[in-house]
Design goal:
Helix content is about 50%, strand content about 15%. The chain has about 260 residues and is α+β, with helices and mostly antiparallel strands.
Length: about 260
C-alpha cells in the first residue's frame, strides 16, 4: 500500500524522522514562494507542509494497522484523517499567505526607499532637458592654421578643440582632415554642464559644421525620454508590486548607464 505523504517528500516506506525532516527542509526551500519560479510553487509548498506535519504529528502508522506493518505504509485516503488534513491544509495555506505578506512588506520598503532615488533621477533628467534647450555658449579658437588632431575608434572621430572633446560620427572628418589645418573653430556647448553640441570649422574660407554624435545629448539622448516616460508610467499606471519592482531594476540600469555616459562624454 502506498503512502501519498511519503511520495510528496520523495521518501520510501520506513523513512525515519531525521529523513523526513531533511526531505522537508530541502523541498520547502526549493518550492518556497519567495524563491521558486515554478508556477505551481505555492500549491506545492502547501502540499509539502501538509505531508511533513502529518508524518511528524500522526506518527509512524495509524492505530488500526497491525504492529508488523512497515512504518508509514498506508494510504491516507483510506483512513479517517479528513479533519486533520483540513487543519493541515489551512495551516500550510496561512503559512504561504504569511510568506507572501512578508515578501510584499519587503517590496514596499524597497519601493518606498526608491521614491527618493526616483526624485533625484527625474530631477537630473529635467535639468538635462533644460540645459539642452538653453542658448548655447560659443567658444572661439581664433588661432590660424591649427592642425586637425583627431583620434579614431570603431564608432567615432574624436577631435579636441578649446578644451572640449567632440565625438563625431566615424568618417565625418574624412574629407576635411585631408586639408590638414583649419583657420577658425567654434565650439558650441551647453551653459549648465558645458557639454559640446556643435563644432564649426573654417577651412580655406569654407564653413563646416559637425554635431556631437556621442554623449547624453547625442546618440544616447533617448535615455532622457525613456527615463521620464518610465517615471510617469511607474507612478501613474502600474500598481502591481511585482511590476513596480521590475521597473525599479530597469530604472537603476538606465540611470547608472546614463551617468556613465554623462561622465565619459
Amino acid at each position: 500500500m502506498n503512502n501519498q505523504y511519503l511520495e510528496v517528500l520523495n521518501l520510501a516506506p520506513g523513512a525515519t524522522e531525521i529523513e523526513i525532516k531533511k526531505a522537508y527542509r530541502r523541498l520547502s526551500k526549493q518550492y518556497h514562494p519567495d524563491v521558486s519560479r515554478n508556477e505551481n510553487a505555492r500549491e506545492k509548498f502547501i502540499e509539502i507542509n501538509e505531508a511533513y506535519r502529518f508524518l511528524t504529528d500522526v506518527g509512524p502508522r495509524p492505530e488500526p494497522m497491525v504492529a508488523s506493518a512497515p512504518a508509514y505504509d498506508y494510504n491516507a485516503q483510506d483512513h479517517a484523517y479528513d479533519d486533520w488534513r483540513r487543519k493541515a491544509k489551512l495551516f500550510a495555506k496561512r503559512r504561504a499567505q504569511e510568506a507572501v505578506r512578508r515578501q510584499n512588506i519587503m517590496i514596499k520598503s524597497i519601493l518606498k526607499a526608491f521614491d527618493l532615488v526616483l526624485i533625484l533621477i527625474v530631477s537630473f533628467n529635467i535639468v538635462l532637458v533644460i540645459d539642452s534647450h538653453m542658448t548655447l555658449v560659443a567658444y572661439n579658437d581664433l588661432s590660424s592654421n591649427q592642425p586637425i588632431m583627431k583620434r579614431s575608434s570603431s564608432y567615432y572621430d574624436i577631435l579636441r578643440v578649446n578644451n572640449h572633446t567632440l565625438y563625431l560620427r566615424a568618417g565625418d572628418l574624412e574629407d576635411v582632415e585631408k586639408i590638414g589645418t583649419y583657420e577658425h573653430a567654434t565650439v558650441y556647448a551647453t551653459p549648465l554642464f558645458d557639454k559640446p553640441m556643435y563644432l564649426d570649422l573654417v577651412i580655406r574660407g569654407k564653413n563646416y559644421r559637425f554635431k556631437q554624435y556621442a554623449g547624453v545629448y547625442g546618440f544616447f539622448s533617448f535615455f532622457i525620454k525613456a527615463i521620464l516616460l518610465l517615471a510617469v508610467l511607474y507612478k501613474a499606471f502600474f500598481r502591481s508590486l511585482d511590476v513596480q519592482l521590475t521597473l525599479t531594476i530597469l530604472f537603476a540600469f538606465l540611470s547608472i548607464f546614463q551617468l556613465y555616459i554623462f561622465l565619459k562624454y
